[in-house]
Amino acid sequence: MERESARWKTLGEHLDELDMALVDLRTYTTLDPGLATSLTFPQLSEIRAGVAEAADSFRVIASRFTRTTVNLGVSGAARMGKSTLLQSVSGLDDQQIPTGHGIPVTAVRSRIFHSPTVRRAELEMYSPESFLTEVIAPLHAALALPAPPRSLEEFAGWSYPESVDETRSRLLLNRLCDLQSGLPSYEHLLTGGVKSVPLEELRPYVAYPTNEEITVAGPGGVRRAYAAVREARIECPFPQEHVARIGIVDLPGLGEVTADAEQRHVDGLRNEVDAVLVVKRSSDTSSFFDETDTSGMALLDRVRGFVRSTGEFTYVVHNTDPNKPHLAENLRGDLLRSLNGGEADRFFTVFETDVRDPERVGREVLTPLLKRLADGLPVMDAEVLSGTRGRAAAVRDRIRLQLADLWRVLDLVARRAGVPEEVNDAKADQLRSGIAKRLRVLVADLAAEANGSTDPGYAQAVENAYQGVLDWIGDGFGRGADAWRELALTRMITEGHPADFAGPEFNRIRVEISRRFAALDDFFTDRLTDAWDRTAAAIAAECGTLFSESADGEAAPGREVLDRLAELFDASSQPCPDLAAAVHGLLDVRLEYRTLLYPRVRPDLAPLNLQVTHPDTGEEMQQVAVPLTEEGADELYGIFNGLAEQAAFRIQKSLLREAAVPAAVVHALVEQFEDTLIRSGTSVQEFRRFVRSYRNDLWPEEFRGIDEANSRFARVVRVTKEIAALAEPGEEEL
Fold this sequence. Notes:
By secondary structure, the chain is an alpha/beta fold. It has helices at residues 2-26, 33-38, 44-66, 82-90, 128-142, 152-156, 167-181, 183-186, 203-206, 211-217, 261-269, 291-304, 310-313, 325-340, 358-417, 421-451, 456-474, 481-495, 499-517, 520-540, 558-571, 577-587, 593-596, 598-601, 630-657, 660-679, 683-698, 700-703, 710-726; strands spanning 70-75, 109-114, 120-125, 194-197, 229-236, 246-250, 275-281, 314-319, 349-353, 611-613, 620-622.
């Protein structure tokens, strides 16, 4: 799902690039006006929106599938017992999940998770910028006020109207003015990031102030810390037995007067909860399913998304009062008729309980709900995935249809606005022949170098490596001569035999000598870099302004030029894969001592072993047999010194005998590159493709004004191909 989301995001970026590329191509004045007008991607804005939705949907599904908890959303209109239900499930009280009578109390969305050992609250705080954008701006928009303030200082001094006519607008204005007058009480909390708060001190951060608090402090003096909080995450032990991996999402009540309440509700539930409990209380004034409830259920239907069965996602909790059974009976009958068409649980399962009683809530709501989800969650996950893929496939089909139309127009543009094929082919043959001649001269020069006298650079590199090995040997094999002897004597006395020291030391010395001769890698790198530089120079000399020089007029490094050449072959309006592969083949080569020459000098290291073969008898023999004394340690040092110097000398001679190898290898590499680039079966065809895309840069004086649209055209073709590839079904769908 994460790969799919990234793919659709990339597709959206490519559509943006295509839009810009088409605009650029349409500005080419020599195109026929009618043809230029046809260079469009119809319905681009709608398709972009569909692509963005697909990217977001796959991202959300990935989040859904990687959640480690079963999340239950709790919703409902204010004063229905929603917060009391949350208290019964979580074991929290009014300090963390506020309840009240007559007015809404929940000001901030809370996510509450069962944790057997942790009790904490972490608050995601608004920054000044996000507060103005996400809280104040929607209120301004809902009230049709001028553009919202851009700073807290500007908000504090804003002059708002004293009143408005419409009831809802009046309530929104009151809320806006409350936020303005209370700014000093929460401005210091607008820090962004996360703030940890003890559970006992949480209430002011998640609840609206009570009537008593407002009466005592006055509207302008009441503390409104909740205004700085975007969301709260609470962890605590739930009281229900056997509960694990459960989370509940407490949402502000349906029907509350906020500028973006409905959207906040949708955002809070979409694929972040596995089921929603809608709380409805039977009372003297609410023993029936009213308009607010109907709107809320419709909203949850939107949240459900691709889950086909409403009853698997949305459940109703009938909050009963044992002291008023007649009211419960009234609401029970209305729910049966209004929600389920007269048949119990036909469309929605109704759980009936007293939300004040944790034991009843566990038995009558939580347990049956989780049993249903055990079977229903895999089904809902599959439906969400299938629905998302289906919608994404529809967007993909629209893209492919538009691309087919665009390809037809691009074909016309290529035929009407391009240079005649015979001219293009002639220039391609000219370029290929010119590069072939220059590379042939280079190959001949490299052959002469390979067959000539020893490369003085190679001989010097071998000599430097050899001298480095001798210096290391003379320094007591990197330990100092005295320290080496002392260590040898100690080990011989401790173990009772020189072999216990000599065996590992032979191994160490043998490996180190070989490693030190690997310093030849620097020489090989220089020779390979020189070959790249000379090859790049031969090609660049025939390519006009295709490869720019540096600011000081110097040619770019050969590797950089060849990398760029491979990119150009790949990015051509009609790609040139075999030419690109030839360049990559040259650049992918590594010349190293360990692979090129080490196999040839390995026998020279053989005497540096504790056990060696007697040259006459062929029997295995030990090289060291010295007394366990200081004199014996001196003798052992002399043996090791002599054997190591002899091995280094033999390696030096072997390497000098192979002096022609590096040059021969470089010659063979460039010769193979030249043969592949110029004489492969697709060389002629791909050079012609290459020239079509880069004529202006290859011969700027000849084609300026004739084909200045070519690079624009190539860009459109390239992006169109990339979009076509991205719009193919993913592996999982196939």
